[in-house]
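Quick note —
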Amino acid sequence: MIGQNSLFFLLISLFFISVEPKPKPTLYIIGDSTVKTGSGNGENDMWGWGSVLHHYIDTTKINIENHAIGGRSSRTFITEGRWDNLLPKFKKGDFLLVQFGHNDESPINDTLRARGTIKGIGDESELIFNMVTKKQETVFSFGHYMRRYAHEATAKGVNVTLCSPVPRNNFDEEGKIKRPRPFYQDWTRSIAHETKVDFINLHE
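Predicted structure written out below.
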């Protein structure tokens, strides 16, 4: 038989087990320097939007991890192994914000960064000998890489939002932001629609 004291402590233990809080979800962010500049601490008064997001989100209910890094494109965030390192951390109910495009306009192959992607969202590819890594690499379209982020994260139960690039810091004579043709904005929207994930038009 269980004594009264033992029964009391057993019930108390079961109560605390039953009300143990679920782990908080995590909001993961990936992108380029417009999402996190440098270490993300405002060096030289330069900030990426991901570094100030905690001012607008209740971090008692959700964690924020900003994995964006300057100079990367939708392609090089993958080819450097950053995406594969992040995938195992995802759990069902987490969130992911993705913003690329600024550096995807760079050359596909050069001796400086070799970070560009094929323009568009199609199935085109190009086999190159990467002058930076000194290895052969198949380069795909911007849409191919964005599609991969959406598919692989949602397969893990993550809520994905694709973001268009923010406008560049270029102004005309009237002080208005110069608006390039909205290629990356439209391409990102198209991939979000195709993969059935959310889209935020940060360009606007």
